[in-house]
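Sequence in, structure out. Go.
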Amino acid sequence: MKTKYVEIKDKILELNRINDEIDLIEWNKDDGPKFDSVKEMKEFEERILNGDLDYIFNDDKESETSSVIDNVVETFNHILEDYTFYIYTYKKDNNYITYMSIKYLNDEDSINNIYGYKTTDKEESDSYFEKLKTSVITNSLDYTFNKILSDIENDIKKLKTKYNELTNES
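Output:
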């Protein structure tokens, strides 16, 4: 299973790389800051998330953003063979955001935010949370990993299509 776990991790890295390239194109397409590289764009985004650039967007010093931990609505852990599946939902602004992560128990290796879902509807969020939870509980590790790989492959295909459309527009 470690081989499939590593494959999932590699596919997530590919997915994130393509998504970063799309973000770079979209940032540079819109009015506002322009970036020469994904690294430069990510550094800017990190500064925003850390509050280093809050003064650009908001003068209200009392509107500090609280951490994800402070806003957790629901969590679930499940160990399946040598892997812990961690599903959690937190509330930020008026959105409910649900993620699933996997940790390999034999070392410190983990894959974060494999699945993610964002909605303003609490019932919809609860339904997605339960869907992930039920899937992890009722299926074998092999089935679960194969399903995750299939879903990631589909997302990669969609992102590649979007990336090609954006680069052809330029």
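Check: Strands lie at 72-80, 83-92, 95-104, 110-119. The first strand starts at residue 72 and ends at 80.
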